[in-house]
Design a protein that fits this description.
By secondary structure, the protein is an alpha/beta fold. The protein is built from 15 helices and 6 strands.
Length: about 350
Amino acid sequence: MGLNDKGVAIVGTVPEGLPTIAMPPLDFELWLKILVPALLISVVGYVESISVALTLAAKKRQRVDPDQELIALGASNIGSAISGGFPVTGGFSRSVVNFDAGAETPAAGAFTAVGIALVTMFLTPLLFFLPNATLAATIIVAVLSLVNFKALKHAWFYSKADFAAMAVTILVTLTEGIEPGLIAGVGLSIVLHLYGTSRPHIAIVGQIPGTKHFRNVKNYDVVTYPEILSIRIDESLYFPNARFIEDFINDAVAKNPEIKNIIIECPAINKIDISALESLEAINDRLKDGGITFHLSELKNPILESLKRSHFLDALTGKIHLTHYDAISSIVPKLAEETFNATLNLVKP
């Protein structure tokens, strides 16, 4: 129809035949030039591949093995490197077109490869006048099935931080492209994670009457003891939040001169890095100078084993207790037992 003469973009000439097998140039200077771009391409390629894999697997309630995905991507890129191809990744558009066509197993990829090989050898002249808009329409219709606006609404109500990362990823992708969008989303997620963990949730806890359980004083009617400050830290301890915990304990001690014992309940602590260890040592020394005993309870064994390799346990003014109830009982045994034997109707003092 001569549409190309009227301004319609067409596919044009597609080279015939299969690529020749050859080793890529072993040029060290060239490798240095493409090192950073190659690293970026590999990261974005993996993120894109695993994203579309998880999305499509969720539709069929299948499981994705990230290790196998990496092996497949590595093998594919080796094949591409020796045949003059582009870096290989699992593309959104191609994967969705394949999925919508009814593909059920990886064999679909093998049949697709055979089909493409036959087309490149015998049928490329027939593709010359194919309008690019036809290819674009195929991709757009397929990818639209992945668009889920309800996810934004769900993220908004569930977590503002997750909504922000999702919204930034979408906006940057639409305005700048897939790679900048993914980088922006991953980068913002890391920043939000660091910010959130730098200010961990710390709860002052008390004993629920009739039980050996301890809960947040803001949410439950619990019994507390004036000479004891029991706190629960709901985050691992590492360098971004170490100083925050120090400041919290210092402020609590300054506000309540009756405190003689401080107990940190540690069931949510999965790691204590060297910065946090130094903060715990500083807290212990500062409390010791003020005549306050420092205890820890419900430490996980890997954390305890790590602490045993330091001098912290030797300097600790208090003890490591198996349970928080044991810690309270060692300080005020009579009151702890009375609370345990009390009824649940006991009102918080």
